[in-house]
Amino acid sequence: MFKYTFKISVFGNYNTGKTAFMHYLQDNKYVNIYEPTIGVEFGTKIVELEGVGQIKITFWDCAGQERFHSVISNFFKDVTAGILFFDVTDKKSYDSILDWVNKFRDNNSLDVPLLLVGNKIDKKDRTVSKKDAYTLATDLDLIYIETSVKEGININRAINLLVDSIYETKDTNPNLIEHEKTLLLHNDIKNTKHVSQTCHNCCIC
């Protein structure tokens, strides 16, 4: 059994590379076929955390189209962390960051890490500077990294960065699922019920 399960919500504007990122995590390659996400798609990945062992990550890839926003806000609840995407060549997706952060924070405390990903750095027509993105991330208390899913740049590093951040805040993250504690709690409940029943029977006797 995995010691931890991390539930991560992946979101951001339409066509910022979220689904391509998910495909890369699953297949370790860029998939050059784009189909818009309808609602929410689900994926998993197993990672090794030094000193802890294997951790299971479940990803919830949320559609970026505005008509789905009322639905996907439900998938911000009870997550261990979030990944917010924007396209460094699309100023509109950058300008939407604050709105997305507010939606996420409405459902989560600051103890739930949020990674901001500036994607498509392989393109030449960049409109958002790295300095501006870093400044915004700092102001909003976000982790920041730049990626190119197409070129395979910083994909695994992004996940490792977020996993490390989650583990660093494990004692304060209210949504972290630790299976060992869950198992211990379950056993304590069983033992408590057993003692209670035994005592009750003794009293009847």
Structure description:
With 205 residues, the chain is of the alpha/beta class. The chain has seven helices and seven strands. The chain has helices spanning 18-27, 69-72, 91-95, 97-105, 130-139, 155-168, 179-204; strands at residues 4-12, 40-49, 53-62, 81-87, 114-119, 143-146, 177-178. Strands 1, 2, 3, 4, 5, 6 and 7 form a seven-stranded mixed β-sheet that branches. The longest helix has 26 residues, at 179-204.
What layout of secondary structure does this protein have?
Layout: E1 4-12, H1 18-27, E2 40-49, E3 53-62, H2 69-72, E4 81-87, H3 91-95, H4 97-105, E5 114-119, H5 130-139, E6 143-146, H6 155-168, E7 177-178, H7 179-204
Parallel strand pairs: 1-3, 1-4, 4-5, 5-6
Antiparallel strand pairs: 1-7, 2-3
Can you tag this structure with a few keywords?
Rossmann fold, about 200 residues, disordered C terminus, about 25% strand, globular, alpha/beta, seven-stranded mixed β-sheet
Please summarize what this structure is.
The protein has about 200 residues and is an alpha/beta fold. The protein has seven helices and seven strands; from the N terminus they run βαββαβααβαβαβα.
Helix proportion range: 25-40%
State the end-to-end CA separation: 42 Å
Shape: globular
CA-atom Rg in angstroms: 20 Å
- SS content category: alpha/beta
Number of strands: 7
Query: Strand percentage, roughly?
Result: 15-25%
CATH C-level name: Alpha Beta
CATH superfamily: P-loop containing nucleotide triphosphate hydrolases
CATH-defined fold name:
Rossmann fold
Number of DSSP helical runs: 7
Q: Architecture in CATH? A: 3-Layer(aba) Sandwich
Task: Round the mean pLDDT to the nearest integer and report it.
Answer: 81
